[in-house]
Amino acid sequence: MSKVRILEVKQSVFANNDAQAEALRADLKEKGVFLLNLMSSPGAGKTTTLTRTIEALRDEMKIGVMEADIDSDVDAETIAKTGAKTIQLHTGGMCHLDAEMTKQGLEGLGSDDVELAVLENVGNLVCPAEFDTGAVKNAMILSVPEGHDKPLKYPLMFSICDVVLINKVDVLPYFDFDMEQCRKNIALRNPNALVIPICAKTGEGIEEWADYLRREVANWKA
Amino acid sequence: MHELGIVFHVIKSVEQIAAENQVDAVSAVTLEIGEVSGIVHSYILDCWRWAADRSEVMKGSELKIEEIHAVTHCEACKRDYDTVAHGRTCPHCGSEKTYLLAGNEINIKEIEVPETA
Number of structural domains, chain B? Predict the structure, then answer.
């Protein structure tokens, strides 16, 4: 048997990514660019919510959007129609974005003059929760048809989010979705999460969400 | 796909550590994987074979896995219990105010390098 030498490492797999994410946040702070990482399951309404959000804020601040998908540019085309600066990122089959890909995305977007940059992460509640993108705040969308027990099934996602948007509240009468139970389930995993019920289709609740972003973008630049 | 993302991060880290230590070949990497980290061992081993063989330094290297037992702590009764057997609800007092002490890790423990004469 050939001899081997052992290098002791004892380092989390996420250590490098976490360090890159911290460096990216520091750089964004210096430039006054607020980066929001928006996550959800596929079909929860990320792109529609984002369209509404841009409509609410585009006259007040410069907005840039990075659309991350495994393939296609349909989402980027939708967002581009709002007039916001948009770039489509392809993850090449990967199920999440990490800090380095986010950094490259921001460079591609040309984010230095952007005040609010939004990363629309890959539709997935597992992997995006594990990789810090360097965002200032994390938000996730839970849509009514997914059920109020989602926070119990994907605890890590809910524990890392600053805001949970509960979307598609217009269809509440048709689903066995218990809003109070949902709030309790979220609080169990993350007592600090801000919960905002919205309907991206009708615009309900979007103003409260836009207010949150106004506050946070101003705080970040201060 | 989840495992492939993890493998890419491991390979990047190991390549960096190898370069720092003037090592040009790695024969094995040992990962410590928590019992409830959501990593499927057979998937990560398959991803490893595919991805490691595309790395100059890590071609042919072996992935070794050591599992870390998952333990949850109850804030109500201050006792610890086995996470896999009991989940989030404390088996001692029934409280849901619990948090994971160990079992969610994905750590690079050590790297084996062939000894050159």
Answer: 1
Q: What is the per-residue pLDDT for B43?
A: 92
Domain A15-221 has CATH 3.40.50.300: yes
Distance from CA of B46 to the nearest CA of A (A): 16
Residues of B with Cβ-Cβ distance to A6 under 8 angstroms: 110-113
Question: What does the DSSP assignment read for A154-204?
Answer: SHHHHHH-SEEEEE-GGGGGGS---HHHHHHHHHHH-TT-EEEE-BTTTTB
Confidence band, pLDDT 50/70/90 cuts, at residue A148 = very high
Query: What is the rounded average pLDDT for all residues in chain A?
Result: 93
State which residues form the domain around B50.
2-69+102-112
- Closest-CA residue of chain B to A152: B88
Q: What pLDDT, on the 0 to 100 scale, is given for residue A1?
A: 55
Q: What is the pLDDT of residues A81-99, one digit of tens each?
A: 998 999 998 887 777 889 9
**Distance of CA A116 to CAs A39, A54, A76, Å?**
16, 10, 16
Residues from chain B that touch A13, judged by Cβ atoms under 8 A, are: 6, 9-10, 13, 31, 106-108
The residue in chain A having the minimum alpha-carbon distance to the alpha carbon of residue B110 is A8
